[in-house]
What we know:
- The chain contains 21 helices and 38 strands.
- The chain is an alpha+beta fold.
- A six-stranded antiparallel sheet has the order 4-5-15-14-10-11.
Amino acid sequence: MGQARRTRRRGDRRGRRQGHAPGVPGQPRAADPGGQQPASAGGRHPLGLHRRREGRLVAQAGHRTARHAAHDDQDAGRERRRRRLVSAAEAAPGPPAAPAGEASGDWCVLRQRVKGPGKKVNQDACHVSSPGGGQAVVLAVADGHGSAAHFRSEQGARWAVEEFARCAGEFAHRAIALDGAGTGYRELRDAARALPRQLVGRWRRRALLADCNAPADGRLPPRPEQSGHTPAARFTPYGSTLVGAVVTANLLVCWQLGDGDVVLVDERGTVRTPLSTGPDLGDETDSLCQPEAGRLVRLHWQAFPGAAEPPAVLLSTDGLAKSFADDAGFQDFAKGVVERAAEHGARTVQEQLPEWLGRAAGYSGDDTTLVAALRPPRGRAHSRAAGGARPEHERNTMVNGMLEAGQILMAESGEQVKVAELFGSGGQGEVYRVETPDGDRALKWYYPQLADDRQRQILEGLIGRGWHDDRFLWPRAVVLDPRTPHEGFGYLMEVRPDRFRDLPALFRRDASVRATTQRSLVTAALHTVEAYRTLHSKGIAYRDINWGNIFFDPATGDVLVCDNDNAVVEGETAAVAGTMDFMAPELVRGDKGAQPGIQSDLHSLAVLLFLLLVNHHPLEGARALRIRCMDEAAKRQLYGSEPVFLFDPSRSDNRPDPDEQPGVLDAWELLPEVLRTLFVKTFTQGLADPGARVRETQWRDALSTVLDSIAPCATCGQQNMTQPGGRPPRCWDCGETLRLPPTLALTTGRLRVARSVLLGPRAKVYAHHLADDPPRHDFTDVVGEVTEHPKQPGRYGLTNRSGTVWTVRLDDGTVQDVAPGRTAALRPGLLLEFGGGTEAQVRV
């Protein structure tokens, strides 16, 4: 099910404190008298596997070995004596730093880091640069873990900001090249998603080079080409977090791995923390030294087409936020920094930052770093910052959006639509909450150059079908601006309920998806298959199935499919061909005559299912780890010209790396054989022959069978997937062999379809179990439920929850009716007739 690894940071993490000093925006009053270097504590090893709970692996506490301690004193001398190898990446100059406190092109920048009281070494690092002649700003802060297991983390933090600056500098030049109207945003967003993997690869090469020159454990390690892979533990001493951002006049993109803060302050003074994950994680944080760290990076994307002003952007390590009593105090400080820079100038604020951050460091006892990018005050922005009144026509302007709050739009159906607030932005446009006569709806408004005639035709065709399915956020009506009806448009859809979460949160094992279980995960996969099966049955190809278009409820497994405005009738053309790592190989290669359609959707669907159940891409194994720059050419080779499945029976050169990708191996072993067989078929035969790809009905039947075979462990209570009809496996958590409950073997009436349901406590029989070919699995339509005898604990029966009478045949041949609400005692050999020719037998 994948893993969520956490790295233990410095042993002492003080809580946020009360009090602020006069003259400093939201600053603590005095230094913490206990703000001394904390004693080294046994670190939680970021790579050690321990117990897995409901689909996540928890890091196991580990202690620094005596061998590490013995070599500590030798490391400094050894590194001074030995010649240091320098890679081309290290020797190449990075982007030039922007002058702190000064205007750099279109921006003013701030930069300051302060060592914590009593610390020997500042574990923080930071970077600020202005590529493109000041048309963009690149910001980065990193926080080395500093615990005993990460005794070289100050180097790791420095490498993190340096390599981010190089990757982000290239990204910034691409962002500057955009025209501000949306052209190229989709490709740029793909590049933003790919940047973390590129960054992690470059950081690891720096760490590996340093460790080869001066091994952290004092032993000369084998060369990677000799051992076949690099032990992940070699990166542990250099562990660090990273927070970075690129901001231009038209775009803001932020990345975050581990703790730290991204704070945005708009021209109204509204403060947002878009990448906040809630309460402090305590002693643990995500780290660059973890396996597959790139998958744990959080991403924030925000576009500013038109005349919208980007917000002030502040990045800080967690030492700053920890010095405040609560989040409100920290956000007040950030707002105060921006306001003082607008009133007194960035240079004045820069001169005061050492004092402010020094007080914060004294309060938190931790290293403290802050970098920021602010728009220089000018024109209207300057007058407002200095206290001038906001012009009447601007008071309702939507912050950082194409539309204005309160603006009245018109649906083609004739109803008025009032803009309320901006939800977010993506590669094609922005999404707003709007008010309609029928209640709140979501409005997707296209970037101007993407609002073309072809997109309008696709929308009108989808809306004209009048299709209503609660699994899809389907377009309902085209919306226009009555003032400029020929210059832009969007469409209405339902608002996504709060209970639905995106799949990246699942891949990161975010706290918001902690309710996920084996059952809800398999249910989500099943609902996803049925949703696309319904779409395909209407002759519509989705064309861009990927992890960004599906939302799921962690508790129930319900799903919502969004971004349906690119779906077209099979055979028609559309502007979107797909997302490369989900696209069928023939589309990636650009084979003659290959077009996105239902057959290519089947490949994308299989990739999505593999990600759901294994938490990894099916083609990214050892071969992907050997790619040093995951550019477009590398992706075309990996996904198009030379795709190889991780578990291809005939090839082993792309197996998951046991050190870098251990969770993939674990998750694959947990999958029942019925699912593994389908994955092998679709990612071996199906890569070369589209006709050999697994169909939706095959996935549906297999997932439904697995769902009915999930069994709880009697020892620890954890849910386990089992092979239908197979031998009881060992529990993935406690290791005990499962004791499987009796099975209800059903046979439907007309087509005689056979199904099996494990009859554990509280197990349910649903209406879809009794149907030959159910259109969908409805888990609210219960017809039977396993219940415990009220007076005889441990004795169970099957209670009739339907509206019809069942018939039970006993061992002596007698027949009894089981009316609704009555219960039939479960015993081996019991025969039941549910009506309509459907019958079942209890088997042990």
